[in-house]
Amino acid sequence: MSLNQTFATLGDPTRFAIVERLLQEGELSAGRLQDQANISAPAISRHLKLLRNAGVIQQRVDAQRRLYSVRPETVQAIHAWTMNYKDFWQGSLDKLEAVLMKEKVNK
User: Fold this and answer.
1) 56 and 10 in contact (C-beta within 8 Å)?
2) How far apart are CA 22 and CA 34, in angstroms?
3) What residue spans define the domains of the chain?
4) Integer Cα distance of 59 and 30 in angstroms
5) Neighbours of 27 (CB within 10 A)
6) What is the pLDDT of residue 1?
7) Least confident range of 5-19, 39-53, 93-107
8) DSSP string for 31-85
9) How many CB atoms lie within 10 A of CB 92?
10) Which CATH number fits domain 3-106: 1.20.120.420, 3.40.50.2300, 1.10.10.10, 3.30.930.20?
11) pTM for the complete prediction?
């Protein structure tokens, strides 16, 4: 799984909405996902295929149904990546706050 491919795939609003719904509601069938997205069955299938190929979601077969869920490994990888940058930005904001407080005191 490549984070570049993951983020590129999630850059599409429909695919992002699919993943958000799966995160909120858990495993869902393609039909249930199509109902909310208000797009055709072939279009939802293409979106699901791209998400599977990027490693964002996984598919499970249950009799006649295909059920989809978000891969926990992908969520963990995104979380780890963002936490690295959170530390960077928090440090930068702390430095900015110190400079602003110093200027405020000197006025």
Assistant:
1) yes
2) 12
3) 3-106
4) 10
5) 15
6) 63
7) 93-107
8) HHHHHHHT--HHHHHHHHHHHHHTTSEEEEEETTEEEEEE-HHHHHHHHHHHHHH
9) 10
10) 1.10.10.10
11) 0.77
> Which CA distances in Å does 8 have to 11, 16, 17, 50, 87?
5, 10, 14, 10, 24
Q: Tell me the per-residue pLDDT of 37-86, one tens digit each, with 9 for 90 and over.
A: 678 989 999 999 999 999 999 999 998 889 999 999 999 999 988 888 88
Would you say 37 and 17 are in contact if contact means Cβ atoms under 8 Å apart?
Answer: yes
CA 77, 81, 82, 84 dihedral sign is positive
